[in-house]
From TrEMBL:
Heterotrimer of A, B and C subunits. Residues 351-498 form the Asn/Gln amidotransferase domain. This is Aspartyl/glutamyl-tRNA(Asn/Gln) amidotransferase subunit B. Belongs to the GatB/GatE family. GatB subfamily. PANTHER family: GLUTAMYL-TRNA GLN AMIDOTRANSFERASE SUBUNIT B MITOCHONDRIAL AND PROKARYOTIC PET112-RELATED, GLUTAMYL-TRNA(GLN) AMIDOTRANSFERASE SUBUNIT B, MITOCHONDRIAL.
Length: 502
């Protein structure tokens, strides 16, 4: 089906109700793999980070990574889940060359965390509760590279390369209950959920959750049912969607595609789908296996996991402030609107602003620089705000120089430009570039006198009471001092000289 065959989004929603299920895989930031001591660092040569256990060699025995379990419990607690008193790993049996053991060690009917929820905020400020079915522990597979074809997929390839460095890296899979009642906002809910989950994972410190690096990926399961119907329709599973925008687009496309198939009397096939970034479409993958095809059974080589209640309660007590609660607190402290806070979040500016305030800057100044000049430069450079070569402490120092009158706005911008260009700290840039407000009253007075002499007609107007005309003289003085005068002081001096009251 091509994009042009789709039913329009509005028409689809007029007839059908979408039901979604979101499965998010998070790669944990542990130092070692889930069941062996191999490093999780992926910068080495192919197959260099492997051992008999993660290569599935006969007789090799797995051992559970304690930090992996701890991270799973933290995620479960932050999602308001119940934490199992006793649970087991299970073997999910299937053959694929990137999985050398012939089974994936996962959890099946005994997940470590279950029955939770995550509240997500939509663009209009409304809060939507997404219920969590479960969060379970499992391991990643290796990586296949198909060589010789045009698309990089296995079809058309002459041969495939296998790298098992990723095999056995800890994953937490977080599965929602069916998300109903979102209607036309289903794609927005999907995006907001993944965004909120990502913030949560980062706040817990269990993963950097970089979607572009595959550390967090989302399967978007979607079905339609006629409006008012109880029974769910057949679902499709769009696999491994790896950006927030793509999650939204994939859900939207599938709504339109399902509607087109159903409206023309067709049936939806339960299958996996691939998402295509270029045009936002999905195409068929494989027919989806049912759980029974995997012949799940309890993993005999691993002891059950029975986290002590004292441990769970200790982790609960140590949970950081959750992102949505923190954002609401900061929004009130900073006195900004929901909309502004959303922009700050989208720009990745929450932490830089907080750190700048912690380094001594007033909240409004910290916000002004990060959301203004610095956001603009990050945008131009196509980098994250946090990746700019300037620290929150340096931004705070610029704010301090402005507050004490050493810099005005224009000079502060030049100082920031210098820091970003690698010219050193704000103080070093100010010294090297000679960026300081001219505060020498004698020099300023001379510049003011010259401006008055050169603009006699304007000076007469001001003497006659047209205070508004003073702007032109201030401009002339600022120009003469190359922007390095304090404009407010210049204005005072002009009005003083001409006997006008400001
Ligand atoms: Zn290993």
């Amino acid at each position: 089906m091509t994009v042009t065959d789709l039913v329009s989004y509005d028409d689809a929603l007029a007839t059908y109700d979408p039901v979604m299920g979101l499965e998010v895989h998070v790669e944990l930031g542990t130092k070692t793999k889930m069941f062996c001591g191999c490093s999780t660092e992926l910068k080495q040569d192919a197959n260099s980070q492997t051992c008999p256990t993660c290569l599935g060699l006969p007789g090799a025995l797995p051992v559970v990574n304690e930090i992996g379990v701890e991270s799973a419990i933290k995620i479960g607690l932050a999602l308001h889940c119940e934490i199992a008193e006793w649970c087991r790993f299970a073997r999910k049996n299937y053959f694929y060359p990137d999985m050398p053991k012939n089974f994936q060690t996962s959890q099946y009917d005994e997940p470590i965390a279950y029955n939770g929820y995550l509240d997500v905020q939509l663009e209009d400020g409304e809060v939507f509760r997404v219920e969590i079915e479960r969060a379970h522990m499992e391991e990643d597979t290796g990586k296949s590279t198909h060589v010789g074809g045009a698309t990089g997929r296995i079809h058309g390839a002459s041969h495939s390369l296998l790298d098992y460095n990723r095999a056995g890296i800890p994953l937490i899979e977080i599965v929602t209950k069916p998300i109903e009642g979102a209607g036309e906002r289903a794609p927005e809910v999907a995006k907001a959920y993944v965004a909120e989950l990502r913030e949560l994972i980062k706040a817990l410190g269990v993963s950097e959750a970089r979607m572009e690096q595959g550390q967090m990926r989302c399967d978007v399961n979607l079905s339609l049912r006629p409006k008012g119907a109880e029974k769910f329709g057949t679902r499709s599973e769009t696999k491994n969607v790896n950006s927030l925008r793509s999650v939204e687009r994939a859900a939207r496309f599938e709504i339109q595609r399902h509607a087109a198939v159903l409206s023309s009397g067709g049936t939806i096939v339960q299958e996996t789908r691939h998402f295509h970034e270029e045009d936002g479409s999905t195409t068929a993958g494989r027919i989806k296996d049912n759980a029974e095809d995997y012949r799940y059974f309890p993993e005999p080589d691993l002891v059950p996991v029975a986290p002590a209640r004292e441990w769970v309660e200790k982790l609960r007590a140590e949970l950081p402030e959750l992102p949505r609660v923190r954002r609401n607190r900061l929004r009130e402290e900073w006195g900004v609107t929901e909309h502004d806070m959303q922009s700050i979040l989208n720009a990745g500016a929450v932490d830089p602003i907080v750190q700048t305030i912690d380094a001594g800057a007033p909240a409004d100044q910290a916000r002004k620089w990060w959301m203004g000049e610095l956001a603009r430069r990050a945008n131009e450079g196509g980098v994250d705000l946090a990746a700019l070569p300037i620290t929150p402490a340096q931004v705070a120092r610029v704010c301090a120089l402005v507050a004490e009158g050493s810099l005005n706005d224009k000079l502060a911008r030049q100082t920031i430009e210098g820091v970003l260009a690698g010219e050193g700290s704000p103080d070093e840039v100010v010294a090297a570039r000679g960026l300081a407000v001219v505060s020498d009253e004698g020099a300023l007075g001379t510049a003011v006198d010259e401006a008055i002499a050169a603009n006699a007609a304007i000076a007469d107007k001001i003497r006659a009471g047209k205070i508004a005309a003073a702007g032109a003289l201030v401009g002339a003085v600022m120009k003469a001092t190359r922007g390095q005068a304090d404009a407010a002081r210049v204005r005072e001096l002009i009005l003083e000289r001409l006997g006008a009251e400001g």
